[in-house]
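SAMPLE LOG
Freezer: B-3
Tube label: C17
Construct: single chain, 266 aa
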Amino acid sequence: MPGGNPPAPDRPKTPPNLGSRLSTAAGDAPGRASRASGATMTARTARIGPAAATPMATPRQEPAASSAAGDDRPRAPTPAPRPPAAGAVSLWLDTYEDIFSDFDPRPYAHRALSEDFLAEARRAVLDRRDDVPELLFLVPTDARTLDDEAIIRRRLRDHFRRHADRLTRERRRGVWGSLAIATAGLAVMTGSALLRRQGETVTRTVLHVLLEPAGWFAVWFGLDQLFYGMRELAREHAFYRKMARADVVFAAYVEAESTNRGSKRS
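STRUCTURE (predicted):
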C-alpha cells in the first residue's frame, strides 16, 4: 500500500509441535550424551571388571638352598639330660687325656691307663659292697668327641675285663696253692707223729726234729696265705670285677648341672 510500511517477508511456517519437539530434543541431548557415556563406561567396566576382580597370582617362593654343611636345616630338640644311675661313680675330667698315661704316645685304643685315674677309681669303689652300675665321666661340652668316646669306652671295658679275668685266675691259683701247702704241712706233721712209734734211733730223732716244725710252718703259712695274704688280691679283684660290669657313660658339664638342679627340686 502506498504511504504505508512495506509488508514483512513471509516466514516459513513451522509445523505444529515442531518447536516443542526441537526443545525436547535439545533438552534431552545432554541426557542422551550422559546415557551414552554411561553405557560406554558400563561396557568398559564390563570388559575391565572381571580382570580387575581376578586376584593376582602370588609368586611361588622356591625353598632356599641349604648350605653345604647343613647348618640351615632345623635341628632336632636336645633331649632332656638323663639322670645318673643310682650308685653311679662320677669323675670330673678336663680332657680325655686325664684317663690315660702321659708317658704313652699310643692312640686311645692301645694306650695305658693313668695311675692317678685308677687310684681315684679305687678310692671311690673299694669301700662299696654293692656293684657299680655306671661309671660317669663329666667332660666339658666343647671337649667332647663321640668317636673318641666310643674308642675310650671300648678300651676301658677291655682293660677292666682283662685284669678281672687275670686276677680271677691268680686268686684261684692262690687259694689252691695255699690249700696245697697247708695240706702238705698236715701230711708232714702226721708223718712226724708216726715216727714217734718207732724205736729210739738217731734217724728217727733227726727226722722228727726236722719234720715236726716243717709241718707246723707249712700249715700256718698255707692258712695265713689263704685268709690274710689273699685279702689284697681279693680287693683288687673286686675292684676290677665291679668296673668291668659298670657301664661307661660320658656327659657334659651342662647336663650334670641341670641334673643336679632337677634332683634338688625334687
